[in-house]
Each structure stands twice: as structure tokens, then as C-alpha cells.
Design goal:
homodimer, 5-stranded parallel β-sheet, alpha/beta, 482 residues, 7-stranded mixed β-sheet
Chain lengths: 482, 482
């Protein structure tokens, strides 16, 4: 199956069956997304009633395409799908994505129709995503074959989702938050390829560094456990489990037909396999950032550096909520900071910079904490790489103020901010401990080696990321100790 | 005290003592913020060494101002503050905001200096914010006297915060999320005016409809309880408590000198008084939106309407986590929806619109759930008022596509989306039950009566808002039942 999925995710030619010139139809939106996404290989629209779609020659059926077809994406109405698959099979198409719905999700008749198309796909040895899928993405061939008009950036995370909507959101948010996507599949009804197959494939895929799954139900729990146990020593797996509760389980039964497993069983299974469980799509994306941007923490001791006392207090609360240790400040650090900070500084962890405006001091203090063996990670609070816009003042303030001078000063402060952040990221790499920054969110270019840089708006999110990384690192160390 | 605070928050003239022409000093930033914020009354910069600041005549000392002064904002270095206050007192200034730090937060000597200025302020009967405050805001006179360059929109919420940074963030985020600010105070060291004084004032202030507090410690717990008990039957109070844990409590002791009260004691006190406790600044702001935008829910039964099955599943999970009931769909609603939805729809709550693209159906289904007496609130998932930008396609798609037609279609879809959202908000008001919308966030103009409209990116936030509103409504009903 892994080799077949390799073709599916790296097609040299794609047929779009059910292509259309009508803007509001998936038959238009999906090929439009593929073209906007920059797919450079061959795209063949298929529709017996059209001549040209999106400026491309249209073929009446797949078997009329005068070329090999690695992947056929099918959006035709359900009753036509069996004939389309039969035609694909005869043509020698290598893999299928069936977007079309109206199969097992609609009841018994649909289930029978689904059995039929699965049997056809298998007869011709074509792995099939769906039916009732929202599409797939594979950024190494720039293939963006989705319902949602968005082109994600390329990166280390691969995702499979038993909900197209939830998966699409995870993918978009992750990309927007600097962690680009490698592969994505909306698994749909999983008539053929199941969540376990995607997991196995992502596990051995050298392009995939982090795996995220949205799961409502798993048919073969034993296989899932074995796969996860093989993968988590090498790559983190983040799982968002829908249907954890009685109400959610009922909804899941109606949505994907997932059997409601006991929450406790799922949660202990995830823990046992070293899987990191997330509870919201935002956690999935935040945890992915932690794994993509930071080294794993050697332990649970956190140093908190803050520009505002209240932020330090809240962060310490969140750390204790999550079982992280806000360990006391070692004497040498106290002595060192005594030289930098005003005489009345907190002398404790959180280290409160007491409204110091000097960003260099902040960076220096942060590096000091990072270097110290007392701490396994650092949270830096109060980062603002783009302070005060002089425009805010320009409208109401008289000419007596030299706006040019103000702008130059602003630019200087802002550049200092960003270069400090980059120095901190470099120091993080050097000391092999995570640093999570909190402050005014800003879009920053990644580091030269591609490491994303985020500034989170809320310390709670920083603490949850560290907590997820600590849990994963502890799992990895527990294996090494065996 | 209430009358004095009234002058403080509605000054007809403001002196800025320690004003400066240096851009990086608070003596420049704060008056610049006041002018940018549109304060129309008199602003008098005070500095013995300057002639003009921000285009205004500068006075050497407050007593040299040839006019009454309702409020003096002081940013001079700490050693000069007593003389400044003495001068203010002799001049007959009515109220003070002391931004200057280096008082009780720095240790014993600072505490003595603070006692001295408090005694002086009281001698002259001037209520004093701070010292070590980040400033105050009062939007009815457009007074924005803060360190952070931002002008909030006016609205129903008043805030007091024992952390300037946390408070500023709550204010900015609330304003950005459509819930404008009425009054704000960074309470600083609370040498004179305490968190209880602000609470009492906001409680009786007709301009304030919702109160939010960031608290690390309360000196007079008994007074706080009595005040809160008097206010919560009329206005919601949202409290973010910093220092809930051992680690956070230690940090709070170092930050504001707050004594670590037991978490359990605080939480039961809040519950007892009908105070809604938030755990993050985002919850404060989200809860404020709920109270500002929606009627209180008559009970805990939630209807979930969704465009994607996975969203419904996650929302049902969150509801059960928070003790809300995802009650079954009544037969008449099933029968009605049978006419609108495809034959295989879920026939349960969550109601899954099964990828229906028709927004009118979505709005109609939502109103049907809202009307039904089975439900006390509705969560609507999958709102997108600004779908597909045609620009996404324009760069890579050949000219065969009529971009003008596409744009016209987009505009039509988008307008239909926004008008549906407005109809839903109107129906919410009519049926006196809350509706929280989740989808792609969009900035929407408020309703004609000023009600804000938000679309939340995550169903968890919607559920937490409903849960806070349910708790508050149940408290109010429990009082009425007595």
C-alpha cells in the first residue's frame, strides 16, 4: 500500500473527471485550485459535454486521454462513479480520489454502492481516497486538489482527517501559523484507504516530519497501536479525537458511523503509544509549531521571563495547571541579573523585567536563563517586534513633531526587535531547549534553515505547547531507558 | 468616593505633569495618545524646562495653569512626585493618576514614599489612581490616557486591572472583538483607590453594562463580596484571577504583594457572588461578547447546526465537557427539516446540513431551532460571509474565465452571507435566546442598535461563552426564586 500511496501523492498527470465551467461547482473549483496551487504537471479535464475548461482541452472520458494518468479525481454524480472507475481501471489509471458523496454516509443503499466502487477500484489495483472526500494535498509536486480555495505553504507536517472541514481548518491554520504542509488527505468514508493506511505511509515517508490526525473512529485498533508505537520513537503524532463524550460520540456515529469507544480507553491507548492528544484544532496547530520550531525539552523545569508582572503570574498558574515546574532562580543567575536590572527586581522565577524598555537586556536575560542547567525551557513574555506605529500619531499631532525622525526611531526599534527574536531562536538551537515567545503577534519570515518563528498572543498557548513537548520527550526518554 | 471617581473619569481639563518632547518617554507617549484619542477638552502639558510640547503651551507647574484642573496625570520621577502632588493640592486639582513607579513595589523605602504621597493626596481630598499605574481610559469624554498607543472603540464594558499589561491586552482585544470599552483603570499599587472602589463605582455607573476585573489579591474580601452581591443581579462581573496556583501565587506576591488566598476559597467566593470566573484574557473578552451581544439563555439545552459533520462532533464534545445539554431534536423539527435537507440528513442534534451550499436554508434551519421551545441557545457552525476571493484564481487562470462575472457572483454570495447573519442576530433578539456563530472570522459592522456581531474561529470558544452565560443566568434565576 505504501508504494501505491506514493503514486497517489506524487502524480505526474491528473485527470479531473466531472470538470465544469460553472464557477459554483466542485468540477470548476477543484481544478481551479490545482492550477492556482501551481501544479506543473499535466492536468486533463474530463467531461463529455465540454470542449475547453480553464483554457485546457477537455476529454470525453478518461480512456480518451492520450497519455498515462497517475491520478483520477472524480466529482461526477454518484450513479456515474462506477462507470468512471471501470473506465479508469481499463485505462490503467494508478490511483483515485473520489470527492463524490451519496455513498455509505447516506444509508444502506449508499453502502452497497460504495462496496461496488471499492470492489472495482481493488479489481484494478487502484488505491482510492474517499468517497465523500474533500480532496488531497501534496506540496512537493505542488498538488493542491481541494474544495477550499487556499494554497498552503510547503513544510514538515502531514495530516489525515476523518472530517474534511476540520482537516481543512487544521491545514490552513497550520500553514498560516508558519508550519507548512507536506501531505494532506480528507479520508472521507474510507471505503478503501483508511486512517491506519495514511498513518503507516506518513510514518515511513521521509518528507513527513510531524503527523496530525483527526479521528472519530478506528476500525482496527490493534493495527493503529502497533503503527503508532513504531512511529512515535521517530516522529511525533498529534491526534484530535472527535466523539470523546456521550453527546460527541452520538454525533460521530451519525457523521462517520464511528463506534463510540470509551474515552478512557482511547486516552490510555494514545498515552501508551506516545501519541500527543490535542483537544482543539488550535492545539493541533500549536503543538505542530512546537515540534517544528523547537528542540525537545530535556525536562519539565520552565523559566519565565516577562516584561509585565501580570503575564508572569498567569504563566506560572498555567505551568502549574499543566504539571510544569516553575523552578527557583539559581544564585549565579540572580547575581548576574542584579547587574542588569533595577535594584528592586523580583529575584525569582518568573523574572520580571519591570517595564524595562531595553530589548537587548531582555534578549540577554533570556539567553542567560537558556544557558543555565536549572531550566529545560524558557517562556519569553512581552515580545513586540513592531511597536507603536507613528501613523497613529500623525493625524492628530501638530507639525512640531519631526515625523521623519520618529519613523527612523521606530524602524530602529522594530529592527532591533526582530533581530533579537532571531538571536533568541539561534540560541535556542545552540542550547537544544525550547523557547516559546508570547507578545504581539507578527508575521516573521522563517529562519534561514526554514524553522518557523511564531509569537503567540497568549501565555496559556505557550504553556500548552511546552506541556505537549514535555509529554512527548518523556515518552521518548522512557523508551530509551528500557 | 463614587462622586470623586466620576470627576476622575469625566475631567473637563487635564494637566500632564512631566510632559516631554522626547518620543521614547511616557511624558510624550501619554499626551500623544490623549490627543490621538480625540480628547476635546483642555490638555495642559507641565514641564519647567520646555516652552511647547505637541504644539501646546507648556506650564512650569500645575499651579501656573490659568484654569481649573480636574485631573493631573503625573509621570515625573518618583522623588519629585510629593512636591507635584502638594502643588496640585494647593491648586485645587480634583483627581490624580500617578504613572510614576518606584514606590511600594520596590520595597520598604518605596512603601514609605507611597504612604507619603497617599497622605498628601488624601489631605487635599484628591482620589489617586496608582502609583505605578499604566493609566486610565474613559470613552465618553474620549479620554485615552494610557501607555499603549491604541484608541479603543466606545462600548459597554468597564475594566479595572491589577496588572497594566494584562489589562491593556483585555481592553485592546475586547475593542478589536467588537465590545467597546466604557472605562478602564490600571490600578497600579492601589495606594489610594482600590479594586473594590472601582468595582463599586462601575456597579452604580449607568454607562457601564458589563464589568471585567483582573485581580491578584483583594485586601477587603468582605467588602468585595458585598459589592459583588449587590451588582451581579444587575450586571455581569467577569473576573480573571491571577495567582490561582502555588507557583502563580508566589509570582503574584512578588508582583503586587498579593497574599496567596486558597484557590478553592476564591473560586467558591466568586460562585457565591454570581461572578463569572475566566481563566485567560481571551475568555474575559469572549464572555464579554456573549453578555454584550446576546440575551441570557433560559436554560442549558443547546441546538447545534453545522455545515460540517466534524465540527458538530467536536462541539457536542465541548458542550458535554461544560455541562451543557445537546438535547434530541423534536419530531416537528425533524419533519420540517425533512422538507429542506437531503433524505440522508442526520435527523439528530447536531443538525448536519451535509455540505449544503445554500445559505438561505442554513439561516432558515437556524431560525427553526431558535423558535423551538426545546432549545435555550443555538450554535451555528460554518459561517463564511466572505467566501472565495476570485483574486486567488485570477493570477493562474486563463482569460477564458469571465472574471467580472465571477466577481459579481462572489459579491452576491458574500452579501447574502452577511444579510443572513444579520437576520439571525435579529431573530436571536426576537426569541430572546443566544446564538453564537462559528466560522471564518470577518469584521462586521455592529447591528443598528450597536449590538456587536462576531464569528468565532473555534467551536470551543462558542461553547465556553454559552457556558459562562448559562452559569450567570442560573445565578440570576436562583435569586429570583428566593
Amino acid at each position: 500500500m505504501n508504494d501505491k500511496l506514493d503514486v497517489l501523492f506524487h502524480p505526474k498527470s491528473v485527470a479531473l473527471v466531472g470538470a465544469s465551467n460553472t464557477f459554483s461547482k466542485w468540477g470548476f473549483i477543484i481544478p481551479a485550485c490545482i492550477l492556482s496551487g501551481g501544479y506543473q504537471d499535466k492536468l486533463y479535464p474530463v467531461n463529455p459535454k465540454e470542449d475547453t475548461i480553464l483554457g485546457r482541452k477537455v476529454y470525453p472520458q478518461v480512456s480518451a486521454i492520450p497519455d498515462e494518468v497517475d491520478l483520477a479525481i472524480i466529482v461526477t454524480p454518484a450513479p456515474q462513479v462506477p462507470a468512471v472507475i471501470e473506465d479508469c481501471g481499463r485505462k490503467g489509471v494508478k490511483s483515485l480520489v473520489v470527492i463524490t458523496s451519496d455513498f455509505s454516509e447516506t444509508g444502506e443503499e449508499g453502502a452497497k454502492a460504495e462496496e461496488e466502487i471499492v470492489a472495482l477500484a481493488r479489481k484494478y489495483d487502484m488505491p482510492m481516497v474517499g468517497p465523500n472526500s474533500m480532496g488531497i494535498v501534496s506540496t512537493s509536486p505542488s498538488l493542491y486538489a481541494m474544495m477550499a480555495p487556499f494554497t498552503p505553504q510547503a513544510g514538515p507536517i502531514s495530516m489525515a482527517s476523518q472530517s474534511g472541514n476540520v482537516g481543512t481548518k487544521m491545514m490552513i491554520d497550520s500553514s498560516n501559523q508558519g508550519v507548512g504542509v507536506n501531505k494532506f488527505a480528507s479520508s472521507g468514508n474510507e471505503g478503501d484507504i483508511t486512517i491506519c493506511d495514511y498513518l503507516e505511509y506518513f510514518g515511513q515517508d521521509p518528507e513527513t516530519k510531524i503527523i496530525a490526525l483527526y479521528i472519530e473512529g478506528i476500525d482496527d485498533g490493534q493495527r493503529f497501536i502497533e503503527l503508532a508505537k513504531n512511529i512515535t520513537p521517530k516522529k511525533p503524532i498529534i491526534v484530535l479525537k472527535g466523539g470523546r463524550t456521550r453527546a460527541g460520540g452520538k454525533a460521530a456515529a451519525s457523521h462517520t458511523g464511528a463506534l463510540a469507544g470509551s474515552t478512557a480507553v482511547y486516552e490510555s491507548m494514545f498515552r501508551q503509544c506516545g501519541i500527543i492528544q490535542a483537544y482543539t484544532t488550535q492545539e493541533v496547530v500549536d503543538f505542530a509549531y512546537g515540534f517544528a520550531a523547537c528542540p525537545l525539552p530535556p525536562g519539565r523545569r520552565v523559566a519565565i521571563l516577562t516584561r509585565g508582572g501580570g503575564w508572569g503570574v498567569l504563566s506560572a498558574d498555567f505551568c502549574e495547571d499543566m504539571g510544569l515546574e516553575v523552578s527557583p532562580l539559581p544564585q549565579p543567575v540572580v547575581e548576574h541579573l542584579d547587574k542588569v536590572l533595577p535594584p528592586y527586581w523580583s529575584r525569582g522565577n518568573p523574572v520580571d523585567m519591570v517595564a524595562t524598555l531595553n530589548l537587548t537586556d531582555f534578549g540577554d536575560a533570556l539567553k542567560l536563563l537558556l544557558e543555565n542547567s536549572t531550566y529545560d525551557s524558557v517562556i519569553g513574555l512581552g515580545i513586540s517586534v513592531k511597536p507603536v506605529s507613528p501613523d497613529l500619531f500623525s493625524s492628530t499631532i501638530p507639525n512640531s513633531i519631526d515625523m521623519e525622525q520618529m519613523q527612523a526611531m521606530q524602524k530602529f526599534v522594530s529592527d532591533a526587535g526582530e533581530s533579537q527574536v532571531r538571536e533568541i531562536m539561534t540560541a535556542m538551537k545552540q542550547h537544544q531547549k525550547p523557547v516559546i515567545l508570547v507578545g504581539t503577534p507578527a508575521e516573521l519570515e522563517p529562519m534561514e534553515n526554514g524553522t518557523p518563528i511564531n509569537i503567540f498572543p497568549d501565555p496559556e498557548r505557550a504553556v500548552h505547547i511546552l506541556s505537549a513537548m514535555v509529554r512527548y520527550a518523556e515518552y521518548r526518554r522512557s523508551l530509551e531507558a528500557q
